[in-house]
Design brief:
The structure holds two protein chains of two kinds.
Chain A (H helix, E strand, L loop, with lengths): L8 H9 L5 H19 L2 E4 L1 H16 L11 E5 L27 H8 L3 E6 L33 H8 L5 E6 L5 H7 L2 E4 L19 E6 L2 H11 L30 E4 L9 H14 L3 E3 L4 H27 L5 H11 L3 H21 L5 E5 L12 E4 L2 E4 H4 L5 H4 L5 E6 L7 E7 L4 H14 L11
Parallel strand pairs in A: 2-3, 2-4, 7-8, 7-9
Antiparallel strand pairs in A: 1-3, 4-6, 5-6, 5-12, 9-13, 10-11, 12-13
Helix pairs in contact in A: 2-3, 5-6, 7-14, 9-10, 9-11
Chain B lengths: L12 H11 L6 H22 L16
Helix pairs in contact in B: 1-2
Classes of the chains: A alpha/beta, B mainly alpha.
């Protein structure tokens, strides 16, 4: 008998469409599992039981009337709490934001997923204002890694990773400015998609760094990731950077295999500065794809430094009024970084933006020679909760600022990335970034599917029971 | 982030933070100075790293960033 609470989105949608199970029964199963498990994972900040059941009933009623329920019929999902949900203040992980007026309507991606039949069951824990790689939150408590509750989920979309890995929902949404979808996907052992900058609308979400912010899905199968991604594409005049390109669905070609795609491992910067296991995970994926070529992403260290500067400066500018009025209500680690960010001399930020243009052109040149780059997602497995420093290449570094050293140079120029989860042993998972050229999400998803079919990557529900 | 190109003499970042705070309309609790300075140090190293890359005067930032 199918356990609907941990079934994949595709399994749920097909069963709901064919009348094998009602959307209501699926929603009830998800809500029951959240109630039973989430006290341990702390992934959810709001559970929207009444809303979810009403929405599920509406889907079931539509099916009885003969209406087509959509590609995500009855699929429970949850969103990082920086995405608007009607009637809730959009807290973005912050104490300060709880005083905001409730959102008048759902964020654009919530509306698009629900238009495809999905059922929102709650909002998810996150690092304050998304300035975080740990998944820790001083106000709501830390989200905890379902594969080992004593370890970090990664952040800032920590609840999004924990909820999917714990089997509380088959699908979640996160945001990624410097790695905040990719890091928790890696630490929690999920698939995650950070699309091309501008691909998915961010309307109705609380910003962090406008020129770097992306929204995207996390799931336990590549098919689910692609199904959600396809449902969310499309232009949106309410997001000034949302693309006007026509949607390019990933599902139709998902099973087409590698074909002529040229795959290379990112060397240089991406081949040092991490635990050997991080590179072993990349080698596992490269072997499964038959990829033997290595290429160097030029000036990746400088790209990371430039992303770091732009993030601090833009983030500080966004929050300056709150820093003036309510500095004491911030998470201290976020506050101190934002205050320092406000003090960056303007020429340093302008230089970083100019470098960004050079770097973008250089990396696009690289994509003339290859279609897919492979790189580690993080320099290590999930650190212990509360861990402040780690040792990388013999140097002790602060955890919070350095978890994203392999993700930042890629989001800096908006490249699409699918994180695939690798299990090298019985320990915590690791993630590998499958990186494509701008607007080639479908290629990255195809490669991820090849890897999933080969058994090289997988995202089982964590053994919490 | 370690940066071999960073200057070896560090300016007085605590004095800089104390002077910049009122310019920005910020009030710094004395306990925040040390962590703010630690962050300024990291940011300065990042700025030095970026500045170490030669860019022609004509290399303008893209007014709208699109991948």
């Amino acid at each position: 008998m199918t356990d609907w609470s941990t079934a994949s989105a595709a399994t749920v949608a097909e069963a709901v469409c064919t009348g094998q199970v009602s959307a209501r029964a699926v929603a009830e199963a998800a809500l029951a599992r959240i109630a039973a498990v989430d006290p341990r994972t702390n992934a959810f900040t709001d559970v929207l039981g009444a809303r979810a059941l009403a929405r599920a009933d509406a889907i079931d009623a539509g099916i009885r009337r003969g209406e087509a329920p959509g590609a995500l019929a009855g699929v429970p999902f949850a969103v990082k709490n920086l995405i608007d949900v009607a009637e809730l203040p959009t807290r973005a992980g912050a104490k300060i934001n709880r005083d905001r007026a409730p959102a008048a309507r759902d964020g654009a991606l919530v509306r698009r997923l629900e238009a495809a039949g999905a059922v929102l069951v709650g909002t998810l824990n996150m690092g304050e204002y998304a300035y975080d790689f740990t998944g820790e939150n001083v106000h709501d408590g830390d989200s905890r890694n379902p594969h080992d509750l004593g370890h970090m989920t990664g952040g800032s979309s920590g609840g999004s990773g924990a909820a999917v890995a714990a089997g509380l929902v088959p699908l979640s949404l996160g945001s990624d400015t410097n790695g905040s979808i990719r890091v928790p996907s890696a630490f929690c052992g999920c698939f995650g998609l950070k699309p091309t900058y501008g691909r998915l609308t961010r309307a109705g979400s609380f910003p962090f760094v406008g020129s770097l912010d992306h929204l995207g899905p996390m799931a336990r199968t590549v098919h689910d990731l692609a199904r959600a991604y396809d449902a969310m594409q499309g232009e949106d005049p309410e997001d000034p950077v949302a693309t006007t390109r026509a949607p390019e669905p990933a599902l139709p070609d998902l099973e087409d295999g590698l074909g002529s795609l040229r795959v290379a491992v990112a060397g240089g910067y991406f081949a040092r500065g991490g635990d050997p296991e991080a590179f072993a995970a990349v080698a596992r994926v490269a072997d499964a794809l038959g990829a033997t070529r290595t290429v160097e992403v030029p000036e990746a260290a400088r790209a990371r430094a430039a992303a770091y500067l732009i993030t601090a400066a833009e983030g500080a500018a966004l929050h300056l009024d709150r820093l003036r009025a309510r500095a004491g209500d911030f998470d201290p680690a976020v506050r101190d970084r934002l205050i320092a960010g406000a003090m960056i001399p303007a020429p340093h930020v302008e230089r970083a933006q100019r470098f960004r243009r050079w770097y973008r052109a250089a990396v696009l040149d690289l994509f003339r020679e290859v279609d897919i780059l492979l790189a580690p997602a993080t320099p290590c497995r999930a650190p212990r909760s509360g861990q402040k420093t780690f040792v990388i290449d013999g140097v002790e570094l602060p955890v919070r600022a350095n978890i994203g050293l392999f993700t930042q140079p890629l989001s800096f120029i908006g490249l699409p990335v699918v994180v695939v989860p690798v299990r090298l042993d019985d320990g915590l998972p690791l993630g590998v970034q499958v990186v494509a050229a701008p607007w080639r999400e479908a290629d990255a998803l195809r490669v991820a599917r090849v890897l999933e079919r080969s058994g090289a990557v997988r995202a089982p529900v964590a053994a919490l029971d | 982030m370690p940066n071999p190109e960073a200057p070896t003499t560090e300016p007085d970042l605590a004095a800089y933070a104390a002077a910049a705070a009122p310019v920005l309309g910020l009030t710094l609790d004395p306990a925040w100075i040390a962590p703010v300075v630690a962050n300024l140090r990291v940011l300065r190293a990042a700025a030095d790293l970026v500045a170490g890359f030669p860019l022609p005067d004509e290399a303008e930032a893209a007014p709208v960033f699109e991948a």
